[in-house]
Amino acid sequence: MSTEFTYAASGVDIDAGERAVTLMRAAVERTNRPEVVGGLGGFAGLFALDTAKYRRPLLASSTDGVGTKIALARQLDRHDTVGIDLVAMVVDDLVACGAEPLFLQDYVACGKVVPERVAAIVTGIATGCTRAGAALVGGETAEHGDLMDADEYDLAATAVGVVEADAVLGPERVRQGDAVIAMASSGFHSNGYSLVRRVVSAAGLDLHATPAGLVRPLGEELLEPTRIYARDCLALVDALGVDRVHAFAHITGGGLAGNTARVVPDGLEAVLDRTTWSLPAAVRLMEEHGVPREESERAFNCGVGMVAAVAPDAADDAVAQLTAAGVPTWVAGSIGRREDADTPAARLVGSYR
C-alpha cells in the first residue's frame, strides 16, 4: 500500500492560514484610505493615485524588516508590537525625502502558522499603518515548516509613498547655519538588537526584572515599539514649507552621527551637542555591562530617532509644533563649514547630561 502525502503533514496548514486571514481582516480594513480599490483577498493590492492632485508626482519606495528584535518577541511570547516596528522602519525612511506614505504590503515567513500569533503580528502592522496614515493593501504569509522551527518567524515590508518633484527633501537643500533639531526616540527602536541580546545573555539579565534606572521590566523596555514620525514630519513641512524644512534623517543602523551625515552636503558638517539631552537609562545599562560608548553611538540611536535640518529662523517653530504633537523635540546642533574633508560629515561633541 502506497503512502499518502498531504500538504499539512509536510508542514503547510492551509486551513490555519485562512483562519489567520479571518482574524486579521478587521484590523487590516481599518487602515483603508479612500484611494484603496477592492479589499483583502485579491491577487494584488490596488491604489488609485489621484494624479490631478499633483503637479509632478514622484513615487518613493522603501523595504525593510525588524531584525533580531523578533527573537525577544518570541522569548517573551508577545507579538503585537513588532508589526508597529516593521511599519516604522519603512514609512520613516519614506518621509526622510518628504514622501507621504500611501500604502504598505507585508511578508510574514514562519515555521508554523498559528492563527492567533499571525493575527497579533498583522494587527500590529495595521496599528502602525494607522499611525502613519498608510493603507495596508495586502501581504503574504508563508509557512516554511521544513526551513524554520515552529515558533520562528521573520517579517519584511515594502511601503510606497509620493512626493512632488520640487518638494523632495535632502542634502541639496541643507545650508550652512541650519539648525539641527532632534526628535526623541521611544527606545532602541529596531536596531542594535543582536548586541542587546548578546549583553542580556552574557550578563544574565532577567527580562522580567526591573533594573536600576528603569521604571518597568527590561523585557517591556526592549519591546517598546518604534515611534512613527511620518505624520508629524509631514505636518511640519506643510506648516513651514520646504524653504524652511530642508531634510530629515531617520536614525537607524549606524547611529545618530552616521545617519545624520547622509543629509549633509559636501563641504559642510553637522555638529550635535550631547549636552542637550540625556542618554537613555537602557543604553547606560548596556554600557554598564560592557558596551563601549563609541559602540553605543554606532549601534543604538541613543535617544534620538529622527533629526531635521531646518532654517535657523524655523527652529523654534519646529520644536514647538513637534512638541505640541507629542514628540519631545529640541535643538541639538547646527550645520557649519567642514574645515577638513577627511573629517566625518556629522559628529557629536560634549557629554550627555
From TrEMBL:
<dbReference type="GO" id="GO:0005524">
    <property type="term" value="F:ATP binding"/>
</dbReference>
<dbReference type="GO" id="GO:0004637">
    <property type="term" value="F:phosphoribosylamine-glycine ligase activity"/>
</dbReference>
<dbReference type="GO" id="GO:0004641">
    <property type="term" value="F:phosphoribosylformylglycinamidine cyclo-ligase activity"/>
</dbReference>
<dbReference type="Pfam" id="PF00586">
    <property type="entry name" value="AIRS"/>
</dbReference>
<dbReference type="GO" id="GO:0046084">
    <property type="term" value="P:adenine biosynthetic process"/>
</dbReference>
<protein>
    <recommendedName>
        <fullName>Phosphoribosylformylglycinamidine cyclo-ligase</fullName>
        <ecNumber>6.3.3.1</ecNumber>
    </recommendedName>
</protein>
<feature type="domain" description="PurM-like N-terminal">
    <location>
        <begin position="59"/>
        <end position="163"/>
    </location>
</feature>
<dbReference type="InterPro" id="IPR010918">
    <property type="entry name" value="PurM-like_C_dom"/>
</dbReference>
<comment type="similarity">
    <text>Belongs to the AIR synthase family.</text>
</comment>
<keyword id="KW-0658">Purine biosynthesis</keyword>
<keyword id="KW-0963">Cytoplasm</keyword>
<dbReference type="InterPro" id="IPR036921">
    <property type="entry name" value="PurM-like_N_sf"/>
</dbReference>
<dbReference type="InterPro" id="IPR004733">
    <property type="entry name" value="PurM_cligase"/>
</dbReference>
<keyword id="KW-0547">Nucleotide-binding</keyword>
<dbReference type="InterPro" id="IPR016188">
    <property type="entry name" value="PurM-like_N"/>
</dbReference>
<dbReference type="InterPro" id="IPR036676">
    <property type="entry name" value="PurM-like_C_sf"/>
</dbReference>
<keyword id="KW-0436">Ligase</keyword>
<dbReference type="Pfam" id="PF02769">
    <property type="entry name" value="AIRS_C"/>
</dbReference>
<dbReference type="GO" id="GO:0005829">
    <property type="term" value="C:cytosol"/>
</dbReference>
<dbReference type="GO" id="GO:0006189">
    <property type="term" value="P:'de novo' IMP biosynthetic process"/>
</dbReference>
<keyword id="KW-0067">ATP-binding</keyword>
<feature type="domain" description="PurM-like C-terminal">
    <location>
        <begin position="175"/>
        <end position="338"/>
    </location>
</feature>
<comment type="pathway">
    <text>Purine metabolism; IMP biosynthesis via de novo pathway; 5-amino-1-(5-phospho-D-ribosyl)imidazole from N(2)-formyl-N(1)-(5-phospho-D-ribosyl)glycinamide: step 2/2.</text>
</comment>
